[in-house]
């Protein structure tokens, strides 16, 4: 299923040649009920967004008056304030068997590759909805909890923030992307909407603990406010070398850590896969 409302591309491929292709892009969009637009100078559009920040937009096949369309875009809702996570997350608890440690994955819109990485390490994965309570999660007997990626403003999942606040200190917690922001909010920090988010698979991030620099995959429009971390028992563990924003935090005393980028990214980059191994090491250490 596609969750996009519109699709814009410079050039549409009308005759795909890949041996795995069974239909055209236009066929897929039509099946999903998504409006598509081709023939756009996407580089010029990107430069415009880089100069003026993320903007609301509209694509229409009915209205032709530009002023009316601009007004319609202005009336469309902002990203903040929308409850997007429940639309893309599981509604039921389900279990994926494994011979290793039991991990509860709080699904905020989790990428399948997060599950693949956990299963690759023999974890038993219990996927729960975003509104699962701390009591429900702890009753599953997890050796660790992973908060997934997901869409929207992190303040719009107050139930997950509240649950995370109660889980911290009782079980190892690892967060990715939106999960990272939720952990920061649960610890008392703040987040903010970036002028333009980080997109793409070539962002240099420095691990401030090891001193190594990794090329990482990003897809986020919000970030943790570093000033709000002052006085909290956490430190910045990773930093973006392009704009110096916070890319990871770690608790000073408890088994809690998170990253803003995607260590599970598919098809890559694969530089940050080591974080899943760190999560397993933390769970083993806490088990003793």
From TrEMBL:
Enzyme Commission number(s) from the entry: 6.3.5.5
Every Carbamoyl-phosphate synthase small subunit N-terminal domain range: 1-60
GO molecular function: ATP binding; carbamoyl-phosphate synthase (glutamine-hydrolyzing) activity
Presence of the UniProt keyword Flavoprotein in the record: no
Enzyme class name: ligase
SUPFAM superfamilies (alphabetical): Carbamoyl phosphate synthetase, small subunit N-terminal domain, Class I glutamine amidotransferase-like
Record InterPro entries: Anth_synth/Amidotransfase, CarbamoylP_synth_ssu, CarbamoylP_synth_ssu_N, CarbP_synth_ssu_N_sf, Class_I_gatase-like, CPSase_GATase1, GATASE
Keywords: ATP-binding, Glutamine amidotransferase, Ligase, Nucleotide-binding
An individual GO BP term: glutamine metabolic process
PANTHER family, sorted: CARBAMOYL-PHOSPHATE SYNTHASE SMALL CHAIN, MULTIFUNCTIONAL TRYPTOPHAN BIOSYNTHESIS PROTEIN-RELATED
Record's protein name: carbamoyl-phosphate synthase (glutamine-hydrolyzing)
